[in-house]
Amino acid sequence: MELFERNPLQNILPEDGQVSYYGVIMSPDQAAYYFDQLLHHIEWKHDEAVIYGKHYITKRKVAWYGDEPYDYSYSNTTKQALPWTSELLFLKKLVEDTSGHTFNSCLLNLYHEGSEGMAWHSDGEKMLGNQPIISSFTLGAERKFSFKHKQSKQTVNIHLENGSLLIMKGDTQRNWLHRLPPTKKVTKPRISLTFRTIIS
Ligand SMILES: O=C(O)CCC(=O)C(=O)O
Ligand SMILES: [Fe+2]
Predict the structure, then answer these.
(1) Does the C-beta of 118 come closer than 6 Å to ligand 1?
(2) 162 with 142: CB under 8 angstroms?
(3) Which of 28, 44, 141, 185, by CA, is between 20 and 30 Å from 161?
(4) Cβ atoms within 10 A of the Cβ of 115, count?
């Protein structure tokens, strides 16, 4: 039934950016295995932000890994990348082989339950270059992910399944915001791997 087949290269944004959803790219068993490995072996830390001089600590946890000990500065805080683990290298290769893009770093997010999310933002840091290519690879609970056009305010929603891959590229960060909305419906944790390329 061709009508129902997913076209992985279809752009889910109507204009001014490019977002591809590849759907599920690993088996549920493999996804469960990697979820567990990352949960226990990644150096998770609560995220911090300094906004108008006030220090905030999130419930969500994060971690930053890369080819080199890159500094990542955002929300007035800086993190230094840790060396890849074998699990991260396996997942990086899977994401690279599936998407045809290469990455040199990864910001991981751990949302313990639906009450934890990420507010509207774009990943427009200078160190990511003009047209950053950023993945969101999901392990664990399925969550809604939303885009909002910065001018027209048009929104696009997608559900990120366990073991699925989404790629943002082109002018997406320039023209669209994205967020992971909090929800009462989800009680299970989700890990996302946002592979990126730091341009030195
Ligand atoms: O959790 C996700 O899928 C995306 C998180 C995100 O937008 C980010 O880390 O910049
Ligand atoms: Fe983001």
Answers:
(1) yes
(2) yes
(3) 44
(4) 13
109, 192 Cβ separation under 8 angstroms? yes
pTM summary value: 0.93
Domain ranges of the chain: 21-190
Q: Distance, CA 123 to ligand 2 centroid (Å)?
A: 5
Do 45 and 62 form a contact (C-beta atoms < 8 A)?
A: yes
Atom of ligand 1 lying closest to residue 179 CA: 7
Question: For residue 110, what pLDDT is reported?
Answer: 98
Q: Whose CA is nearest to atom 10 of ligand 1?
A: 123
- Fold that domain 21-190 belongs to in CATH: Jelly Rolls (2.60.120)
The β-bridge relationship of strands 82-83 and 54-66 is parallel
Task: Give pLDDT tens digits for 84-142.
Answer: 999 999 999 999 999 999 999 999 999 999 999 999 999 988 999 999 999 999 999 99
Q: Is the CB of 190 under 6 A from ligand 1?
A: no
Strands (E), 52-101: 54-66, 71-74, 77-80, 82-83
Beta bridge partners of 64: 107
Residues of the chain with pLDDT > 90, as a percent, come to 82
